[in-house]
Amino acid sequence: MPAPPEGPDPGPMVPVPFAVESKRQETADTWTLELSPAGDGEMPFAPGQFTMLSAFGTGEVPISISGDPDRPGALVHTVRDVGLATAAICRARCGEVLGVRGPFGRPWPVAELVGSDVVVIAGGIGLAPLRPAILSLLARRERYGHLLLLYGGRSPEQLLYMDELQQWRARGLEVAVSVDSAGPEWLGHVGVVPRLVARASFHAGRASALVCGPEVMMRFAVAALGQAGVPAERVHASMERNMQCGIAHCGHCQLGPTLVCRDGPVYRWSELERWLRIREL
Amino acid sequence: MAIRTLEELISGAPAFTGLSPAQLELIAGCGANRHFAAGQRVFTEGEDAESFYLIREGAVALEVDAPGRGPLVIETLHENDVVGWSWLFEPYRWQFDARATVPTATVAFDGACLRGKCEDDHELGYQLMRRFAALLIDRLQATRLQLLDVYGHAGAA
Amino acid sequence: MSEASGYIVQRDELDSLFDALRHSGYTVLGPTVRDQAIVYDEIERCADLPVGWTDSQDGGSYRLHRRGDDALFGYNVGPHSWKRFQLPPDVRLFRARRGDDGQLAELAEPPRDRPRYAFLGVRSCELHAMAILDRVLLGGAHADPADRVRREDVLVVAVQCTQAGGTCFCASMGTGPTADSGYDLALTEVLDDGRHYFVLDVGSDRGAELLARIRTAPAGAAEQRAAAAGRERAAAQMGREMPAGDIRELLYRNYENPRWDEVADRCLACGNCTMVCPTCFCTTVEDVTDLAGEHVERHQRWDSCFTIDYSHIHGGAVRSSTRSRYRQWMTHKLATWVDQFGTSGCVGCGRCITWCPVGIDITEEARAIRESDGDGHPNA
Fold first, then answer.
1. ipTM value
2. C332 in the same domain as C223
3. Gap from B57 CA to chain A (nearest CA, Å)
4. CB < 8 Å from B in window 178-197 of A
């Protein structure tokens, strides 16, 4: 791996080389990679933040950090192969070097949740940006009330971190999983995630929610939360738009009056609501 | 051409079949003719659900907007279909977008007005709920079948 | 402008300004005629300026004409803006090389040294535009040092407008026509009764230091008055006007106004407006490799929100209609920019009106929306 460039600060647009330490396949098209920087470096981050990740030469993509914020020496990303850049990243072998810029973005407001019940709602790969928050909450379990994960996916084969869910249950996270369709061997729920909300037990009056998944799913999940008595001010969602620089310079990630890379990706739903109603905003 | 009253216009629809003339008159009292041009938005997700519509002629698409994929059509509704159920139950807010796909003539009903009449006249309320429940179960069965994605190849992601 | 800092430079002494700048190590960038337009490029002396030229501008129209006199600055703004030096159209961010084993062998950023620039001929609207762009590029938590280096050491010689163009509306945007700060030196050209001179104002210590090498004389009251008259003439001649009132709130109320459909029928989504606008800052980041994938470069290039790919996520564009893209551009410029960066994005230079092939006028669109305020809203 090349030595870090000497001289003046290269700035936030030059990637830092990180080597792939280990790799695990989660589903047919999703891998989790653990990266480490040159030397003894580490990249401290807050849960919900993302990096701009690239295999040199095939373009750069924003990927949420999915690792444990209490262990910043290992930089973990869960990546889905959906195009040229992500295919190259997913194909990277151990020892191969990827470029990392970041971390960027506004994180999950974990400090604000102390003393509350926390409902975590994840859809599909949306569980990846929530994993650092879950690990953070579980590491300080005594500070929170009821902790609950409602996780949905298309089918059992497309769910992430299934082996870890048991460990999380053991550490005090109630977990309910639902898929859109399944065969008879699936013993969990079949149905959409918002329906899990009505069935879940938490104190609406002192509950906050962290939501991440396809935007349509988030809108319906938040509506279900609203009906269960959780106001939009206490719902936080991780949003996504086209991102190229990560530093609020390129303009691509504009969402109304905000820039997702700077004012998000985590937003308080009450600030977002009116903008999400505008088609093609 | 004789001008038909609202009662006459709505009496043929499954939502209102078999109601007495007095009941039809009560319901029609909450209604008015409303036309939509092709492409015109009928209601928008998230907004207050104040009316619902009986399609007399034309078609309405129920849609969900997904950024990057545009509006996804969930279902299309046609002559004699009722468009909109969110006016019946709290929080009285639309869950989807609705858009007329061709020039569409409807009878638009004031939801609050009709809810009020059902509160005052429980027999009317019961008769309407029975008919609406049947329509909703019908839609639910159809939606479940749609969800099975039966045309996809077995084992496809 | 204090009276004490007023000097005059005779027309035939103005080359001493160029000499002074060169002596202090500056490369001068300024207006010059090329390809039937007035553009910004390296210039060395007064003769390189658009001597005796003027421009006539209207919606979708820009022409140069000969003036009846030899004014050096008797025109307004052309298709270039100083943005091309603050935020160059193509910047190489880094270069990398893979070794034979496919591993990364080298990662290098481009050298930062560059000439010291003096921008000569900067108009008031342009000073505001530079400040707005500075805020975008340098005001956030993650400023790129390369952007800072491009701004350090730039010396600004402003020119006060003594005439306004057909598409100018700086007065109604509060950005001109007179600049009162943001420059090192400012010139107001006076052609009066056979005399041709410049009233020179000093705006900074760096400007004051240059004075010693410029052939100046103290400006008298008559000369100051003549310069002021020129500036007032510009203020009175504005070709356009942005409607008064809170445009930001107006646009926030009118996302579904039918006017957007109307302008979408005319807009070609060509993106000219974004290219010529002195504050449009959108860029795209692209990787480029050779055929073997051995040498990799990453570039930052000007982009436009009018392209279909601009808002691409998950296999499609969030803004696929021209209507939504025009609406994005205009509401960003006049409304959401305020929430994102604390100022308006528009300086009233009129370039977007002049260079739009179909002459769409942002002031006219704002007026049309004001007049149909609330239309298209479901509860309207």
1. 0.94
2. no
3. 27
4. 180-181
